[in-house]
Amino acid sequence: MTESTKRRVLITGAGGRIGSHLATTLQDRYSLRLQYHQSIPDQPQVADWVRADIAEYDQIAPAMEGIDAVIHMAGEPSPSATWDEVHTANIIGTRNVYEAARAAGVRKVILASTNHVMGFYDRDGEWPIYVSQEVRPDSLYGVSKAFGEVLGRYYADQHGLAVICLRIGWFLEKPHDDFSRWSWLSERDCTQIVWRALETDKLFGIYYAISNNGGRHWDLTHTIEGLGYRPEDDGELADIP
Amino acid sequence: MTESTKRRVLITGAGGRIGSHLATTLQDRYSLRLQYHQSIPDQPQVADWVRADIAEYDQIAPAMEGIDAVIHMAGEPSPSATWDEVHTANIIGTRNVYEAARAAGVRKVILASTNHVMGFYDRDGEWPIYVSQEVRPDSLYGVSKAFGEVLGRYYADQHGLAVICLRIGWFLEKPHDDFSRWSWLSERDCTQIVWRALETDKLFGIYYAISNNGGRHWDLTHTIEGLGYRPEDDGELADIP
């Protein structure tokens, strides 16, 4: 495809671990715009980038102009974050991203959610875990991501904004212990599941996003069936570095 | 029971429609403290009352001192409320209530939730609706109440604060049309379900709170079984005023 026929995709949080990975691996497939906040690389991967704080609506709104879909990776990523941290970045920030996307006519938002939305099942060893179960967040971080899923459902139902929520496991180059083997999302599986989420015609969905890990506790069949995901890596077989 | 052996219960939003009803009907059973914000009656129903804005942690925290359980009715009650309105009252405010309750050693919070958490099933006529289904809020108000349920689940699991969420239907003296017949919560059934929620030993639960309405669309069996609720009124048989 030529640059002009590619879909125009905004990656928020492009300075983060997953965002910067996707900014590299999705360049050929989409015409990317990158949003940074605090950490901006010396040489951003693509020429089209903006600096904006998602917690400020007036800063993030202009970044949506001409965009077809948003990969929303920006936010507070720590399960030990305080209420003030997740409230600002993941509640106000995610609301601003949905609202700015809707106002600009963006068609889809991919939300970076997390297995921590269901983390109390993990703590209690109540496995397997399915998306259809009631949420049991293990942290204010998990609560804030569950909020993003619920608000996404509303924007999908009310406004026709497609929202795909990916409950991302542990994004690492290689797993380093049992839990990271079970919850691993490899780099190439991460790239694949995000483009699958961009290509699906579903209006709304919540999906576990992990590799094809032996010993996993989170349902992958819903993701395989719903998004056509075909994970290539298995944390149980990966070398410990 | 004498005043000194009654449980000490704080009603937030005691100036509101449901709060002021409960401030009257639960007086004999509990030792009440009432929280008001903007509207304070000339003669509050009980002597122990405070003025506080739940959106300000430092205002609501002192109201928790010596309290055993909170009936949290304060908040923005309109399904047409804006984001700013529900964000302030129902997200920040409800978080402050849980956190202040936890910090003060309160044992239980009853959250006023709503059928609007599932309102898109209503709009689509996808009935019956069970608590176990995925949430589909029909409004930012519904989103904000779903947030209160999720945060309540976290406070219960993480901190041992008992949280009972009541998805209250339409609290009215009498129903006036089909939808209000189906979703009606009569005054005496409202009183009963709140004291049942206060008396249960369950750590967490979400329950529909409507009368025993013929033609209802929301599951009551879960409430009957879980809380011992025995509704006395039926919107289908109630006289239209």
What does this structure look like?
2 copies of one chain form a homodimer. Chain A is 36% helix and 17% strand. In chain A, helix 1 links the parallel strand 1 (8-12) and strand 2. In chain A, helix 1 crosses helix 7 and helix 3 (83-104) runs parallel beside helix 5 (140-159). Chain A has 8 helices and 9 strands. The first copy, chain A, has helices spanning 17-25, 57-60, 83-104, 119-124, 140-159, 178-183, 187-199, 221-227; strands spanning 8-12, 31-36, 49-51, 69-72, 108-114, 162-168, 170-171, 184-185, 204-209. The first copy, chain A, is globular. In chain A, the strands form 2 sheets. A 7-stranded parallel β-sheet of chain A has the order 3-2-1-4-5-6-9, with helices on both faces. In chain A, strands 7-8 form a two-stranded parallel sheet. The first copy, chain A, has one domain: Rossmann fold (3-Layer(aba) Sandwich). By secondary structure, chain A is an alpha/beta fold. The longest helix of chain A is centred in the middle third of the chain and has 22 residues, at 83-104. The interface between A and B is medium-sized, with 26 and 26 residues.
Keywords:
homodimer, 241 residues, alpha/beta, Rossmann fold, 7-stranded parallel sheet, two-stranded parallel ribbon, 8 helices, 9 strands, 36% helix, globular
